[in-house]
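Appendix C reproduces, verbatim, an entry submitted by the partner laboratory led by Prof. M.T., so that reviewers can inspect both the input and the predicted structure.
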Amino acid sequence: MENKRILILYAPLGAGHGMAAKAIAEAFAQNYPEFEIKTANVLDFAFEIFKQALPRVFVYISSKVPFLYKWVYDGFNNQTRYNFLNRVSDVFIKKSHFVKFINEFNPDFIISTNPLPMQLVSLTKHKKIIDILSANVCTDFGFHSLWYNGDINYYFVANEEIKEALAEHGVNKDKIFVTGIPTSLKFNKKINRKEVLESLNFNENTPTLLIVGGKMKYAVISKIVKKIQAGKETQFIIIAGRDKKLQRDLKNSSLRKKYNIKTYGFIDNIQDYMASADIILTKAGGLTVAECMQMNLPMVINDFIPGQEEDNVKYVVRCGAGFEAKNTKEAIKIITDLIFQPDKMAKMKESCQKIAKPNSAKDLADFVAEIILN
């Protein structure tokens, strides 16, 4: 029998869509090695200028002009969504290249972690060029109507609220599966907290705060460290990510000499530090939130993109898995209060465990495999 083929599409408008696509590919590779899996960035089929510019424009607007991003996000959360996606695909994407790519790979199932790729697939179905089983994988904890598409066969969503929202749009509930947001298989591996802390020269009985920098400035991090340390002895793991300036500032900082602090740039083993920390100070990306839930790590969220990440914050707070900090002063107060209330932190860990979906990618792969093998 000919091997089955799975095509996983994403658009790099935020890191989460690509990370979810990679996690799904990992799950297929581990559980169905006989399948042929291909992951593709839909912007690879765009005109070069848009391929380079669109991700940068997205980052700039969402971080520098958030009110504009929020206006666009809310403005297209209605019936105009189709016209919007059609215009985007008409202007930016070389559809003939996209169709040729799909025809040559000839997948048995198409999965998308972003609404734009699936809109292109939908257009090909209407023109009777391609008609392949397909699914959208929603990568946030709130619903936006861009995720809905009448030509999609299945949906994999983060929670029951999104399932209900899709049902209100006319989707059969039997086609919607609450599998959670797909996270990398590395978050499922057993991690010895004591060994990680020992490798950092940290005390396992001292509270540990993990700070994921993102857009955070050094002055803000410095203030957080000093104020929290003044209240109670605390250990800090600070991840600067790809922020080169923050990396340099942390490297040249005197903080590491005064306090028990470990700093890193971009890393691929953040799961070790999530498993070892008592609290995380982070932004509200869908994948980050899902990873924290999986690691039973209480969240203090100090940054989010208005729109989908705003929904993520509301979900985390509503479920008792974290707090929103509206400013640095509030973040310091929340973290300090939690450090002095281990029982409260324990309840937050339990809340994370209740809503976590650690097998999301595998459950999705199992469902798709059953569909195409039967």
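The mean pLDDT is 89. Additional entries are available on request from the coordinating office.
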